[in-house]
């Protein structure tokens, strides 16, 4: 019978009664050999407002020599998630134990690469440009003979993350399958992350508690074959743990310990319009110009079509020029973000009429953002409109309009 326990470290939104995070452990899987399949349902300690991200930390492995077990999360709902397990060899998989962590926050990103055959280096896209810190957690494995391997993140950019495998070349073919999750987050998401190489029983000693963070434990790799029984034991009454082998020679291993945030103080904000200049003119060569275009001085770039860009964290001031062709009998309505948190008058708003002496209007907004963060900007240019928005990843993902300029009929 599967054993599920809950750590009642969960934040409740008192106004609505929704979970923001939850955690627990799951173990007690049935013995598994060729053809076995089973789905286990794990219930949350309440209801999330949104489908959360689910993270697994492998804390115990017990399998025979030559076993290949595969596990994955699936059907994640606001009240529960499922673990699906299957085995593909006659050598039995006996048991595993996972700490599970569910979180409803966009400052954490989870990339699943479950049950990868013939494991190699992999590169994955990711969404949040500021989620440029990360860890890897091993979830499953198929080990047929001697192995010595470790998973690690070899590169993170604003758009991609690469996971590599350090292994012994002569034994590479013996690692038939590994599954893992990549956990990405902002800088505040992690603390004291360390991957330790254990060659004998390990005692962490008393650790320093971080507020609003889970103690996260997981295997990152193994260096052995003759024995595949190892566990991390959290010590009751103290903030410490041990890593031991309970049968046979010690299973040498690569083990990650660290702290994973479930609450954040970092709030990402949008650019706000600091100053604005508007120029109206009559250009005899207007017919040779596009109807709409955007220039961003600091990037030395011009934009005639829709696109997405990431502005470097070093840039706190951005100067734009937005050109609009002004056609007689039309008007141009514009708005610029003045203050994100203002209850009223959030936008600067203007209307300009096109007539015989004006056939183009240029806007020169100067935007400012003090925070040192990457800025994800969406530029949407259509026939009669330009809209510039900024994507923000906080507890929820939001889109803030910075500029919206439309050509309208009078």
UniProtKB/TrEMBL annotation:
Signal peptide from the UniProt entry: 1-17
GO molecular function, one term: carbohydrate binding
Keyword field contains Iron-sulfur: no
GO terms for biological process, alphabetical: cell adhesion
Stretches assigned to coiled coil: none
InterPro entries: H-type_lectin_domain (IPR019019)
Keywords: Signal
Domain H-type lectin: 40-103
Name assigned to this protein: H-type lectin domain-containing protein
